[in-house]
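Hello,

Following up on my earlier ticket. Below are the two sequence lines again, exactly as submitted.
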Amino acid sequence: MEFYKGDAEKYKRMVKNTEPKSPILFDCIKAFIVGGGICVVGQILTNNFIKTGYSSDDSALITNIIFILATAILTGLGLFSKIGRFSGAGTIVPITGFANSVVAPAIEFKKEGIVMGLGSKMFVVAGPVIVYGVLTSMAAGIIYYFWRFF
Amino acid sequence: MNKKIGNQTIKFASPPVIISAASIAGKKEGEGPLKKYFDVILSDNLKGEKSWEKAESKIVENTIKIAVYKAGLTIDDIDYIFGGDLLNQDTGSTFGVRNFRRPFFGLFGACSTMGEAMGLAAMAIDGGFAKNVIAGASSHFCASEKQFRFPLDMGNQRPQSSTWTITGDGTVVISNKGSGPRITHVTAGKIVDLGVKDANNMGAAMAPAACDTIVTHLKDTKRSPNYYDLIVTGDLGYVGHTLLKQLLAQEGIYINEEKITDCGIEIFNKTAQDTHSGGSGCACSAVTFCGYFYPKLKTGELKNILFIPTGALMSTTSSGQGESIPGIAHAIAIESRVK
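Thanks for your patience. The regenerated structure is below:
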């Protein structure tokens, strides 16, 4: 049997028809409930910090720190990957996803040493987020600066 | 005497004997439908070692020891070791065999390595270059995830078409004499690439190679697919298995549902173990053959099988550069009793 040039296109269609579909609606509902739940807890925490006398900026900051710490601990205990498998974007989109993407490689690559392992690989997943996050905010800042003149 | 028949097939003059087989499987594999067939099931995937990679090498070392012991030999009776794995530069195998001080051929055929090793080992025997050789392959779920995908503790979801890398090692001892199933033919596979780029759908990338090897084998040996009690592919999983049957049908080859299977399908319970398309990795075909099919061939429960480990030959660099995934598949024809 020989495969010809046209076969690749034909095969692509075959593969597409065979690929099992992810249960998108079900996944979205799970992500909405978990992601929304995280946000609700965050809001409750922030409101309580404001009530105890912190400024709203400080309250938001403390809430973020709590979520980052909680994620780091759950990742270290090996529980976060199980939650993430269930909730998908529900835990990836909030700050929990970012914290997890730093802690997980740090744990994984610790075996190659504190400097060249943990140190250099810690941001292997989060690195691009930081790079393009900073670039995007720079671009937004420049647009905002010139916007004033109109 | 020329032992090559047809385009890609070798017919052995005195078919080498698989005198023993040993398998060590990981914890998850040990919870699956084949749990009672493995020699050893690990209680955890680190096996008392400091890293996944060290654990894999330890698994390789121990599986070889078991296989040699079962064969009634000592390691010094082994002329060559043929083996490979998925880790960069084959360290899983090389570090596993370094204490044995026996001649070693390190192989890379991705998940088709068991077929490559058994084929070359049988050629070494029938060629008269050796009396006893070892062929084996290993993989480790955690080490593979770390090398090819994401760190283990990342909280992300796996696509439905993805497969689960098997932790374990399967090793056989092949000899020029003794009792056991014999390797009668080897059809070395060629690389087939139909442009699949999705590293989360390796079954689709490998199915055309498996189809090509099966068609070539049947043509070279002038056999019908019904000749075999069972045609067993390596790690196509559910997606690749379905595609393979469609591709074979296009070639006019129809095989009864119960006469063609895949090690990646056999090894896990898809729904209970959340493994999506099935098992994969070098160890997938290796442990399933050594643990499950070898004893059936030995007792004669299976008269003969065509064993076809399949491999997806990509790297993280090639995928990053937008290359498609070349597939390969080697067919090993094994007979319970040679007439």
